[in-house]
Amino acid sequence: MLLELRGVISGYGNLDILHGVDMEVDNGEIVCIIGPNGAGKSTVLKTIFGLLKPKGGTIFFAGEQIKGIDPHRLIRKGISFVPQDKNVFLSLTVEENLAMGAYTRPNMVEKGKELVFSRFPSLYDRRDIRACYLSGGERKLLAIGIALMLEPSLLLLDEPSMGLSPKYKKALFDKITEINQGGIPILIVEQNAYKALKISHRGYVLDMGKNKFQGESGELLVNSQIKKLYLGG
Amino acid sequence: MSLVAQLIVNGIIAGSTYALVAIGLTMVFGILHFINFSHGELVMLGAYFTLALISIELSLPISISIAILLVVLVGLITDIMVFKPLRNQKADSLSLLIASIGVSIVLQSLAQLCWGRDIKVLDLPPATPIEFFGASITLVQIVMIFTVAATMFLLFAYLNFTRIGTALRATSDNEEMARVVGIDNDRVIMVLWIISSAFAAIGGILIGINTNLQIGMGLLILIKALAAIIIGSVGNIRGALIGGMVIGLSENFALIALPSQYKDAVAFTIMILVLLLKPEGIFGYKERVG
Ligand SMILES: Nc1ncnc2c1ncn2[C@@H]1O[C@H](COP(=O)(O)OP(=O)(O)OP(=O)(O)O)[C@@H](O)[C@H]1O
Ligand SMILES: [Mg+2]
């Protein structure tokens, strides 16, 4: 197992949001986390990435306990995180943003940029432009590009499709599938539960900071309870 | 005509010192989110350290270099002893501001213990003014202007073309994201203090060379720098540079119409006008640092 959460308790200050969450991601997989607003989906990703320090449970990555380790060390171990919002440096150019994605490994900057530009050619045309002048869709690609700079062995994505038009959404989900087929396992949080289950191998439904359902995405898609509660009918 | 030329020369000289001081102030604000009141004392110390080193018969360039290093050291020490512990306690901007007023008073008292309250002048060889488009300017002043221009150029090159410089702008832009990509915050903050203190020191030395030294000189320059960064949008380096120049030039041009004791009021009149007309400053929003 690449990533394994057991009984994780975490939150903000004294406020617990996750009350014992279990989760797994294996090599090659796309795993999605769905659930209502405020369920704690973003909190799960922030806790894995060390932005929040868990109060209980264990988190193993590639066989090693990573609970409570700082983000810059997790990056070096191969985890990258794309936050839900404010996930680019608006006043920096596209190229500078990407360079910051490889801050911890300066010798990877050139190789990483090549890799990102070949995956997202539209960013190459805009490489000298400040991120604040990019369209919403381009900005999402840049955010993912930053996370791909070091060729991570696990990518954590928090609602990448949020705020995009349906056309852009489809293109973005195709890109995510491509990235995964290129060999990067992905743990993705999605508001659009239907779409998330469509592109993922397995899924977790999180509610009130607890595991509610889990299983193969194909099975969750046809589960009548999930349909009723989370897929709108 | 020669009056206008003279006012431009004087305005540029004053403006470039304001700009140097304002840049450090605005950078600290951009990353640490507080107005460092003790920044003015770093300016003062730059001038007084130079004075002390010249008085022990060191040459001017060597005195200036050592003075800058000493001020950088003072800046780093204030961070390690005061601001860093407060940051670790998640102190808000107001607490940091008030702490910096405390630091300012302590540094001023220490300086007063060493040098007394009297006005001092740097012991420099007399400078003969030369004619320049009808304005009189000394060789030292010309060197000053070029020094400031070179310093600014180096800063912009550093911020735009080096890894740590870019990380500094990135941190000022989006602190949370800086953490997500693994930028080493302690390192960025150290570089920040080095740049900001060195610029303050150079500003102080220039003031010392051009006019005279007073223990309380930090406050007036701090307040002018504050006006400069508000004019140019707080946190924006280019804005601080332009804001400083605007103030230096306009307070000199105001001399055409106003007696010289009203000079200092001009900076604040402009600042208030900017606040009323464009509260986000001339370089408002998008572009932050760089
Ligand atoms: N910085 C914070 N400080 C305090 N509480 C927070 C903070 N961030 C989130 N919370 C709270 O934690 C709970 C879970 O938030 P989280 O962002 O993990 O939800 P989510 O499932 O990602 O929701 P959404 O779909 O809206 O993004 C919410 O009740 C939220 O109010
Ligand atoms: Mg969320």
Explain how this protein is built.
The complex is a heterodimer of chains A (233) and B (290). Chain A has 233 residues and is α/β, with parallel strands linked by helices. Chain A has a single domain (3-230), classed as 3-Layer(aba) Sandwich (Rossmann fold), CATH 3.40.50.300. Chain A contains ten helices and ten strands. In chain A, helix 3 (94-101) packs across helix 4 and helix 3 runs parallel beside helix 6 (136-148). The longest helix of chain A has 16 residues, at 166-181. Chain A starts with a strand and ends with a helix. The model of chain B is unreliable at 286-290 (pLDDT under 50). Chain B has one domain: ABC transporter involved in vitamin B12 uptake, BtuC. In chain B, 49% of the residues are buried. In chain B, strand 1 and strand 2 form a beta hairpin. Chain B has 290 residues and is mainly α. In chain B, strands 1-2 form a two-stranded antiparallel sheet. Chain B has eleven helices and two strands, in the order H-H-H-H-E-E-H-H-H-H-H-H-H. The two termini of chain B are 36 Å apart. Chain B has helices spanning 2-32, 39-55, 60-88, 93-115, 139-161, 163-173, 175-180, 185-210, 217-231, 237-253, 263-277; strands at residues 129-132, 135-138. At the A-B interface, helix 2 and helix 3 of A face helix 6 and helix 7 of B. The complex binds adenosine-5'-triphosphate (ATP) and magnesium ion. Residues 12, 15, 17, 35, 37-43, 84, 191 of chain A line the site of adenosine-5'-triphosphate (ATP).
